[in-house]
Amino acid sequence: MTAVMDPIISLAILIGGLVLIGLLINRKLSDLADKQKPSDELLEVIKMLQAGSKEDRKVLRLWKDAGYMEGGASGLSITKEFWNFMCEILWIGYVDYVE
User: Fold this and answer.
1) FRET label pair with 18: which of 29, 33, 44, 56, CA 20 to 30 Å apart?
2) How far apart are CA 54 and CA 47, in angstroms?
3) This prediction's pTM
4) CA-to-CA distance for 9 and 2, rounded, in angstroms?
5) Residue 30 and residue 52: Cα distance in Å, rounded?
6) To which H or E segment does residue 75 belong?
7) Of 32, 12, 36, which Cα lies nearest the Cα of 24?
8) Interval 13-72: pLDDT, tens
9) What gap in Å lies between CA 37 and CA 27, rounded to an integer?
10) Are 82 and 63 in contact, with CB atoms under 8 Å apart?
């Protein structure tokens, strides 16, 4: 009787151990998934950017139609005139700023 019980007990312990390991892995993966979720603040920023991107695309379309830039999502090229203009705006906004 002991010879038959040893494999059954060993199998029960093995199955119990595998179930325990599975539960621990599931819990760890669940914790990782919770940590990966974006915060409410980040979701608000994403919504704001998505709403603003429609307006941004209109402006980019106007600049593109005016010949200041070419290309799109895969690559963008701009004219030297446009580059100088944008550098001037940055200079005024950040370096030559007067209150």
Assistant:
1) 33
2) 12
3) 0.39
4) 10
5) 34
6) strand 75-78
7) 32
8) 888 888 888 888 888 888 777 777 777 777 777 777 667 677 777 888 888 888 888 876
9) 16
10) yes
